[in-house]
């Protein structure tokens, strides 16, 4: 009891302390909202069920109760199993019990696993708070945790899909000046009655330092604008986590997610000594920070760039209605391993995409930089002094990092471990690392998240009479949509070559990873930390189409392509296409493309955005708006390609087009089940 109480006191007292850099004056400290009273606020707002979690972990992240969710997953009727993406029923297991053996790669999908998956989806930052707060300084700039809480409390029990957060002090960022109190659009979703956004985890470490991390839910769950309830798995169409990074003091640490050309940044006075004894002059710190800040300020909401290829190619945040949608990722690179590649995708987002310190040892292969130079750039202005490298000091960047690293022996700062293939990339992991929480077992949390996402069924975006839906389905088939969007989940599970799909090629391949090692993983029952003689599973790939593998990675002369997404829940996830370039708002003449919608926090209208996919007249307007925007041109988001029409020029009447849109907006259940109803 004492330990739990101390955990609560830690959170209650330290979150209100002066741990956040930028709390500039005593007067400003006095104006900070009641983060110190978080436990009381949770009780008063009907969220006392969160207190045990807060007490035990000194962390808070919102997880909605079932009565605040539009689409709670149904309890499984029986235990099923995932075997490398194949779902096994009890009847399958009765015929061959060995297929349900975890030693052979089977994952039993129980209610306990689903409950764990939901909890981790909403609550677990997987160590991202260390990089975001200790290195980048999220929360240490003018957007503070207290400011976020203050903005949420100002809703007075209401809800929003765009929390506007006041700045704590005047600041110049990316060539622009912002004033204290100015409201910044974040796109963070706050459900009805909540006091904190979905997907942000606030915590303190043992020294009392405040940290902000992100969870899966920040991007992949959303608030219904009408009811204020949560939609599990719906894409957050206007979330703008880039604003958190831009206003942080060391945005430079995320430079590999931009198209910064270091050769074009003026050199500064700082030098770093390489392992061979030579010295390397670093880019000017202020000039580099200014350029990175400007790019993150301009990043369009609802997108994210998880690649680290020094190319600006953000992708549209997908929904998490994942059942049957393999291969995963927009270019289909995750197709092997548990849940048909879904666990690999989840692992990649947290292990590879959210912690650039994990790539320090391999910086030359990924970025063409010596590891010492890469680490020096990341750590030169680290928010936490313990991680800050001093160019005039006597320690190397690597020594600074190793002495401050709370996860010695692991890559980077996140809760990851080395896989048997580390540091070689494979179909399972792009850098050979994997998310694993100490005290658990290998793949436990990641597989739980995969199982939970696969259990989600989206609510229908619109109620459509059966006869009208059938009419729309007939148009869907006549227009050729069903050639690719086929099967129960409306995907043929294929990657379409660029030459055929015709969309912007920027995101079609993983250009940095051409050579791969056969995928191998730790056995599911191996405890973390993994012992030296841990059991290893060889991940089967013989069932994969090797031409599709080559297409996904752009191997050799193949230019790559894009995976066919499923369409269940498509009404909840505008904008459309991999680059999020197809968007139309309430005003079809002015609200065109991301610049006319999500940039301005105008919610894209799903129906009209879908119309722009199939009507070339409206598409031409969207493309013109995209090409007129400098930011979108730089991000390679233009709206071209995917030319499959259901308009007058293709021989379809206005009513047929409307019926098609009615059908698409109604999709929520697998097609066979919907027809059986």
Automatic annotation (TrEMBL):
Keywords, comma-separated and alphabetical: Heme, Iron, Metal-binding, Signal
Segments for region (Disordered): 388-412
InterPro entries recorded: Cyt_c-like_dom, Cyt_c-like_dom_sf, Cytochrome_c_Peroxidase/MauG
MF GO annotations: cytochrome-c peroxidase activity; electron transfer activity; heme binding; metal ion binding
Domain (Cytochrome c) ranges: 467-668
Keyword check for Glycoprotein: no
Composition skew (Basic and acidic residues), residue ranges: 389-402
Gene3D superfamilies according to UniProt: Cytochrome c-like domain (1.10.760.10)
Signal sequence region: 1-23
Keyword Isomerase: no
Protein name: Cytochrome c domain-containing protein
């Amino acid at each position: 009891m004492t330990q739990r109480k101390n955990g609560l006191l830690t959170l209650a007292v330290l979150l209100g302390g002066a741990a956040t850099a930028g709390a500039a004056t005593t007067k400003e400290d006095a104006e900070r909202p009641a983060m110190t009273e978080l436990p009381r606020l949770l009780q008063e707002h009907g969220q006392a069920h969160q207190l045990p979690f807060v007490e035990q972990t000194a962390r808070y992240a919102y997880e909605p109760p079932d009565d605040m969710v539009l689409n709670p997953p149904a309890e499984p009727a029986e235990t099923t199993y995932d075997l490398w993406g194949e779902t096994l029923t009890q009847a399958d297991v009765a015929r061959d019990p060995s297929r349900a053996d975890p030693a052979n790669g089977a994952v039993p999908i129980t209610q306990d696993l689903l409950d764990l998956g939901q909890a981790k989806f909403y609550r677990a930052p997987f160590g991202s708070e260390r990089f975001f707060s200790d290195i980048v300084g999220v929360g240490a700039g003018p957007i503070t945790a207290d400011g976020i809480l203050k903005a949420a409390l100002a809703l007075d029990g209401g809800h929003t899909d765009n929390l506007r957060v006041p700045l704590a002090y005047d600041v110049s960022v990316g060539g622009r000046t912002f004033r204290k109190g100015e409201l910044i659009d974040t796109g963070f979703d706050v459900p009805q009655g909540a006091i904190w956004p979905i997907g942000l985890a606030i915590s303190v470490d043992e020294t009392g330092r405040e940290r902000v991390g992100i969870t899966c839910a920040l991007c992949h769950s959303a608030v219904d604008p009408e009811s204020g309830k949560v939609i599990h798995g719906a894409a957050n169409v206007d979330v703008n986590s880039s604003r958190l990074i831009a206003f942080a003091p060391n945005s430079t640490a995320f430079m590999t997610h931009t198209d910064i050309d270091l050769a074009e940044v003026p050199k500064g006075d700082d030098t770093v000594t390489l392992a061979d004894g030579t010295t390397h002059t670093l880019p000017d710190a202020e000039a580099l920070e200014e350029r990175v800040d400007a790019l993150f300020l301009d990043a369009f909401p609802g997108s994210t760039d998880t690649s680290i290829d020094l190319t600006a190619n953000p992708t549209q945040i997908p929904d998490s209605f994942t059942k049957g949608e393999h291969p995963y990722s927009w270019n289909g690179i995750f197709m092997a391993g548990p849940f048909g590649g879904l666990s690999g995708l989840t692992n990649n987002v947290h292990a590879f995409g959210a912690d650039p310190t994990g790539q320090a040892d391999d910086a030359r292969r990924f970025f063409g930089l010596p590891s010492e130079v890469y680490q020096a750039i990341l750590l030169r202005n680290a928010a936490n002094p313990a991680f800050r490298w001093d160019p005039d000091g006597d320690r190397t960047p690597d020594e600074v990092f190793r002495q401050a690293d709370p996860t010695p022996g692991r890559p980077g700062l996140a809760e990851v471990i080395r896989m048997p293939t580390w540091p070689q990339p494979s179909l399972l992991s792009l850098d050979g690392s994997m998310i694993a929480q100490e005290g658990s077992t290998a793949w436990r949390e990641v597989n739980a998240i995969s199982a939970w996402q696969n259990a989600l069924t989206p609510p229908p975006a619109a109620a459509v009479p059966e006869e009208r839906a059938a009419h729309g389905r007939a148009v869907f088939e006549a227009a050729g949509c069903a050639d690719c969007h086929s099967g129960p989940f409306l995907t043929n599970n294929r990657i379409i070559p660029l030459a055929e799909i015709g969309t912007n090629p920027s995101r079609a391949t993983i250009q940095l990873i051409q050579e791969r090692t056969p995928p191998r993983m730790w056995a599911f029952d191996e405890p973390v930390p993994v012992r030296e003689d841990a059991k290893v599973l060889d991940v089967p790939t013989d069932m994969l189409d090797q031409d599709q593998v080559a297409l996904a990675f752009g191997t050799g002369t193949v230019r790559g392509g894009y995976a066919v997404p499923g369409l269940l829940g498509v009404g909840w996830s505008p904008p459309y296409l991999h680059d999020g370039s197809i968007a139309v708002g309430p005003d079809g003449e002015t609200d065109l493309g991301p610049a006319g919608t999500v940039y301005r926090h105008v919610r894209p209208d799903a129906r009209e955005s879908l119309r722009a996919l199939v009507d070339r007249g409206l598409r031409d307007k969207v493309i013109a708006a995209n090409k007129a925007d400098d930011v979108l041109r730089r991000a390679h988001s233009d709206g071209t390609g995917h030319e499959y029409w259901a308009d007058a020029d293709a021989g379809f009447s206005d009513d047929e087009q409307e019926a098609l849109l009615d059908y698409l907006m109604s999709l929520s259940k697998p097609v066979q089940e919907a027809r059986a109803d």
